[in-house]
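cron nightly-structures :: item 1 of 1
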Amino acid sequence: MGFLVFLLVGVIAGSIANALMDRDGKGLISSMFLGIVGAFVGGPLLGILGIRSFGFIGGIVTSTIGAVVLIWVVRKLRGKK
């Protein structure tokens, strides 16, 4: 059951990050991947700042922050706004 929750958090966080960063037309798999990778970026990033998150909502917030940072970094590396 934990793996399914992890995937659900990924889909939700990726979708929120796509909306926040104006990435239209991205599919479910793309959003899920973005949210999952965002969790691996957001967790350590918030840890460096001394912030911890717990539970389902905390996972979504952490993953969304990580996904937004990831989109921003990729855009900077590609030279886009």
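cron nightly-structures :: done
Residues 18 and 65 are 11 Å apart (CA to CA).
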